[in-house]
Write a structure and sequence with these properties.
The complex is a heterodimer of chains A (188) and B (373). Chain A contains three helices and six strands; from the N terminus they run H-E-H-E-E-E-E-H-E. Chain A has 188 residues and is an alpha+beta fold. Chain A folds into two domains: 34 residues; 124 residues, Alpha-Beta Plaits (2-Layer Sandwich), CATH 3.30.70. Chain A has a four-stranded antiparallel sheet, with helices on one face. A two-stranded antiparallel ribbon of chain A has the order 1-4. With 373 residues, chain B is α+β, with helices and mostly antiparallel strands. In chain B, the strands form three sheets. A three-stranded antiparallel sheet of chain B has the order 1-2-3. The chains are: A alpha+beta (188), B alpha+beta (373).
Chain lengths: 188, 373
């Protein structure tokens, strides 16, 4: 009998305590405590100070970017990728021909004819950006993102729009630079 | 009741069911509403993790390890890099050790918050779920600040970390801890000591300690049964021996030892211990140092085998790595704690009602990504 009434008492008190907590939250509604109205409002991206080079940049795992003019076709990013979503092909340029230098003053020896990144396969591990000797591949917010406006969403209506083709070499240029019609194509 | 026995019926719960915490199918044999046997059917999320690891380098395994226990990726990474470092025989810098411990314990809090929230959701409490997800969000924000990712971090590397902690991280973490500690009391008020919640969970699904040991159950589920076994204390790895913390065990406060409420309570208490560890680690952490100093250029371990285990929020995570001297593991075996936790479900849920089975499943805190691998 005593137990019966004790149970009722306990139920009422613990329910009241719980309701007190929720009521306290009702009184303390403030910005950030309620649902964000997404397209109009956005969650602020964390501003991150990295500490080196005195550059202020965000590390956001979003889209991969490639500065194709700086790419030397070393395949390091493609080898580092665990899911093989970076496809690179290149042709060897005849000796003596100058196809330019990178931002780090490295002479380019290979003409990158294909540099495709399939962002639908990408697992956003960021492993490809570290071995790049020219810092030309980076995630949004990476060290080179000063050059580009930062947009974090990159959503598209079509899956095929997520395959990014970075190479800007046309076949005529390849034939001219290699001096032959038959291409020595290498790559992964 | 034995007189009123009806024809037994097979009830399928899942694979698409919110209470199965992923793609798990439970074949439940029922006699009326009483469950006579439960058979978990797993494999819907099988991704050939172990076989796949044989074709990728040691560094490339880490994103896949992330995706095993996707609720506590940092802890999974921690277990894996400890195994590879043991195989390579490299020492990591002090600062890296401290950051790793801080990240692992923060992720333990995040994981427990998700476990407790969804457990409450399973037994019908919606509000605590929202509160806990709100606080988990703050931890994820800190992770995003650190490494740019919110769920699958790839933060711990063999021999180091992918990034140093950003400027202001320590202050923000202190701020979070100050905010979070009173929140635990709030969860207790709204959910833990709620009479309805206690009625649903206390004395339900009692896991005796001998059954737990026989099935190889580890982590909070084993500690909920009353055995004080925590690898951080009992088989200290990394720098856990430097911190002062307790290992909470289930004492049967509301029912008997080893019931669902005890497993829940152990997780609540463990969050307090995590806060304690993080505070000590932040105080003791050296402020400068290169986090990539010990990262090897090329990971090529000598021939040999290693078994290394660590304590994740779900229990003992083990990695057995067999190396043949090549840059890819010859064989990698993962001992997943959630798998053993699921295997004990059929043992302890007999004789309970269907809604109790879901409560027991929720209290075991399984992650299907890790069970199926």
């Amino acid at each position: 009998m005593k137990r019966y009434f004790y149970n009722i008492w306990e139920t009422i008190t613990t329910l009241m305590i719980g309701l007190g907590v929720t009521f306290g939250h009702l009184l303390r509604i403030r910005k950030g405590n309620v649902t964000l109205q997404y397209p109009e409002e956005r969650w602020p991206q964390p501003q991150r100070e990295i500490g080196f080079n005195l550059d202020r940049y965000n590390v956001i795992r979003s889209r991969l970017h490639v500065d194709i003019d700086d790419c030397i076709g070393c395949l390091q990013c493609s080898r580092a990728c665990p899911v093989d979503c970076i496809k690179i092909e290149f042709v060897k340029v005849d000796k003596g021909l100058d196809i330019g230098t990178t931002s780090n003053d490295t002479k380019k020896r290979l003409l990158v004819t294909r540099f495709d990144i399939d962002m639908t396969e990408c697992c956003f591990c960021n492993l490809c950006t570290y071995p790049c000797p020219e810092d030309c591949i980076y995630m949004t917010g990476g060290p080179n993102s000063r050059k580009h406006p930062i947009d974090y969403e990159y959503s598209t209506y079509d899956r095929s729009d997520l395959i990014f083709r970075f190479s800007n070499v046309d076949p005529d240029q390849v034939a001219r630079l290699t001096g032959q019609n038959e291409l020595k194509v290498g790559g992964k | 009741m034995g007189v009123n026995k009806t024809e037994e019926m097979v009830l399928n719960i899942g694979p698409q069911h919110p209470s199965t915490h992923g793609v798990l199918r439970l074949k439940v044999q029922t006699d009326g509403e009483i469950v006579t046997s439960v058979t978990p059917v797993i494999g819907y999320l099988h991704r050939c993790f172990e076989k796949h690891c044989e074709n990728i380098t040691y560094q490339q395994v880490i994103p896949f390890v992330d995706r095993c226990d996707y609720i506590a990726s940092m802890n999974n990474d921690f277990g894996y890099v400890l195994a590879v470092e043991k195989l390579l025989g490299i020492e990591v810098p002090e600062k890296v050790e401290y950051i790793r411990v801080i990240m692992a314990e923060m992720n333990r809090i995040a994981s427990h918050l998700l476990a407790l929230g969804t457990f409450g959701l399973d037994v019908g409490a919606f509000t605590p779920f929202l509160y806990m997800f709100r606080d988990r969000e703050r931890i994820l924000d800190l992770f995003e600040l650190t490494c740019g990712a919110r769920l699958l971090y790839n933060y711990m590397w063999v021999g180091g970390l992918s990034h140093d902690i950003p400027v202001g991280f320590v202050e923000k973490t202190y701020e979070f801890l100050d905010y979070f500690e009173p929140q635990i009391d709030e969860y207790n008020n709204i959910l833990t000591f709620n009479k309805i919640f206690i009625e649903r969970t206390a004395d339900v699904g009692i896991l005796p300690v001998d059954v737990a040991i026989n099935f190889g159950v580890t982590g909070p589920n084993l500690r909920g049964s009353g055995l004080r076994w925590d690898l951080r204390k009992d088989e200290t790895y990394s720098i856990y021996d430097r911190f002062d913390f307790n290992v909470p065990v289930g004492q049967g406060i509301k029912g008997s030892v080893g019931d669902s409420w005890d497993r829940y309570w152990v997780r609540v208490e463990e969050m307090r211990e995590c806060v304690k560890i993080i505070r000590q680690a932040l105080d003791m952490m050296p402020r400068d140092g290169d986090v990539k100093a010990a990262v090897p250029k090329r990971i090529r371990p000598p021939q040999g085998a290693i078994y290394s285990r660590s304590e994740t929020p779900r229990g003992e995570l083990g990695f057995y790595i067999l190396s043949d001297g090549k840059p890819k593991p010859f064989r990698l075996k993962m001992r997943s704690p959630a798998f053993t936790a699921l295997s004990v479900l059929s043992e302890i849920s007999q004789g309970w009602m269907i809604s109790d089975v879901l409560a027991i499943l929720g209290s075991l805190d399984i992650v299907l990504g890790e069970i199926d691998r």
